[in-house]
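Lab notebook, bench 4. We co-purified these components, and the gel suggests they stay together. Before we commit to crystallization screens, I want a quick structural picture of the whole thing.
Request: model the full complex, all chains together.
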Amino acid sequence: MAEDYDIDGFYHGLIEHELILPVGVAGAFGRGAVFEDVIDRFNDRVSQLARDDGAETRTFPPVMARKVIERNNYLESFPHLCGTVFSFFGKEAQAREMAQQALNGEPWKQHLDVTDLCLTPAICYPLYPTLGGTLPPGGRLYSLLGWAYRHEPSPEPTRMQSFRMREFVRVGAAQDVLAWRDMWLQRGLTLLQSLGLQARSDVAADPFFGRGGRMMATNQREQRLKFEILVPVISREDPTAVCSFNFHQEHFGGKWDIRTADGAVANTACLGFGLERIAMALFKTHGFDVAGWPREVRQLLWP
Amino acid sequence: MAEDYDIDGFYHGLIEHELILPVGVAGAFGRGAVFEDVIDRFNDRVSQLARDDGAETRTFPPVMARKVIERNNYLESFPHLCGTVFSFFGKEAQAREMAQQALNGEPWKQHLDVTDLCLTPAICYPLYPTLGGTLPPGGRLYSLLGWAYRHEPSPEPTRMQSFRMREFVRVGAAQDVLAWRDMWLQRGLTLLQSLGLQARSDVAADPFFGRGGRMMATNQREQRLKFEILVPVISREDPTAVCSFNFHQEHFGGKWDIRTADGAVANTACLGFGLERIAMALFKTHGFDVAGWPREVRQLLWP
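Here is the predicted assembly.
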């Protein structure tokens, strides 16, 4: 199967094997029991690799403060991907009108107004504002798992509107942050290759919006600020990013006044495993039936 | 501590002990490592209780099809709680204007339009549309864990905008569904009491909107369609619902054409443990430091 990159066939195979469940909106499907088990087991392997690193766990909801999105300049880079929560603030007569319109299949959006929340676009975003102040010597390390939202509906199964990332975030001096990023780049590659995936790393750029975005992407590549680990899932020529490593330099440290023990603006880096994409890479590579996966892969995931 | 119901003091205690992390929006706080560990351990106990029930796991994202919300009449009952995802569909010049307005702290909502997604208000909602057709004899049982959204910002810590539910959903003949609901009502009570919580069950009603909602609530109570397990967390007189049991009769079965093996419209019931609320009930009852919790409670959670 691994040599056949029929996107539609792969999507329908995932559905036929109850690995994903269509819900009528692209990129928002449900996940079946086996799909979830693979995600859990892979996430356990990541935790196992990180067990002696001393990361502190933080969990943030799938929604976050709109003000943080605004202050992070997210809309400058990714206006097209951002989701904002709207809700109803009216009284009874208006509520009845809205409910009736919804039931009739007529528009009802005109009754809604903006709330204080956006959908979390990157699961480390809510962390930085909580870190303002002075770090202990050596900085800090965090472990996160959460749901990210990106407004990019697509029939292509690896391009989801809502998906989970297992992330780590390192905060401290630039050389410590970079050494940690490099260590994990190798760790991530080794882990994914040990699971039989044709994984390789590369310099990468974010999908910045518009013409101005092309310059930002070029700059990001030239400074080697972003790396990805890529695995063929829906194409051999354009392998899918299943893991990304981002060095933010002083961007978040400056924005949220995070300082190292010696008073300098802190550097930050994050890395994230795209859990659904990794599960899909495993199903693509080893087949839809986990019982038929190579013994060494099964032993790593179900020890 | 258990006898003192100072809401503000409890909220600040949770923050001081890094159990929750404020993010600038009420009810959308982050969760610290110990808080998460308590949730994980409690959830493990629930899984342990259910291990021989044969539930199938399904996982749905924190967003779901707006059309399903519309067809479920959610807006008739809870127009005030619903969150709808808006996004940007424009081109570059408009994106630049929006980003600049956001950066200046000016309104930018006028650039957004409605998407096909709402925030998932109850984590079993996305399941029912996937169940259309004929059930096997005896019906089906599902296990779900996910994030729910309710637009009710509040400084009261147990009233969250975004929170997790561990749910089970039973689909089948009315008598099977009801017997299962009754079995779990006792199971839930026994579990929560074994953890030292002053838990009791009661008939309940949903927070339906407006005057029309009062009639719906009365009807729901009279038919005994909803039960809750209550534990004092922020008040002795008004204990907090930490677990709810809902018998939907043929509502979802009829709406999504779910049939029992003998061709009748299926009945459904769901039950959900409010994971954050249960963690808060444990911290309120046993103190902010888990090391000081009663030995029998610790042994149950960390066996």
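The first helix of chain A runs from residue 7 to 16. Worth comparing against the SEC data before the next meeting. Residues 178 and 252 of chain A are 15 Å apart (CA to CA).
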